[in-house]
What does this fold into?
Amino acid sequence: MWLYELIEERHPDLVLAHPLKTKAIASARIKTDKIDATTLAHLLRADLVPAAYIPPRAVRDTREILRYRASLVRLRTQVKNKIAAILSKNGIVTPTKTAFGVKSRQFLATVAVRPCYRLALDGYLRQLAHLTDEITQAAQTIEAQAQADPEAQLLCTMPGIGAYSALLILSEIGNVHRFPDSRHLCSYAGLVPSVHASGGKTRLGRLTKQGSTWLRWILIELSMHAIKGAPQFRQLYQRVARKHGRNAGRTAVARAMLKTIYAMLTHQEAFRPIEQGSTGQRLRAMAG
It folds into this structure.
């Protein structure tokens, strides 16, 4: 990234080749730096380099803030798991339902354990408090940035989407108009099945999972909130889950959410729930 940004300041027309697609075009048995550079030069001369999308620097900076918060949450989860392991070794059960609430932390600070466990427990509790403070500060920055972004406020009208998830979706999509339709956006998120067609027969396989990992992750996470908050997503989930299982149902809802988000951003309209039996049942009309 440092090298790209260094060159970007001097040559705005910089092209970043997509490695997977370039490999499919210019695969060779003998690969050296000289041969690869020559191949890329020939492809660029013929305008055949499959370019990877690079968002503007402001969007990249937003991604860094969002991923920083996500990394803090992962670290806090690891610390919680360490504390849970110590409690399991000593057969200790916290007195409250929430294992890491205020009362539980007070209990953990005074519970009787051997000195070796007390040392680790106190250290993990300090790390937990520090990480929680850092996550709160990052969340405040994200909240302020979302308040100043009209498109983020637009996405927040969909059930389950908050400031963090709205900014994450927008930063991963970038300019929504670079996608000709919602199906291309779903393909970018890796939420479409792989297709194997031969001899007049077509077979659909597992999800491609190529593209934005963060966009696919956040939509899957938000799918349950959307199922509870919007009737069209709940009906879709029940129909798919009944036939293919709950995981397939959540994936179908995530894909439907992304199609709706595409319509919301392109038409600049807020989310509107659709009741069963009303007109405009198709997903492409949910926000249109």
Notes: Strands lie at 193-198, 201-207. Confidence is low (pLDDT under 50) at residues 278-288. Residues 83 and 121 are 6 Å apart (CA to CA).
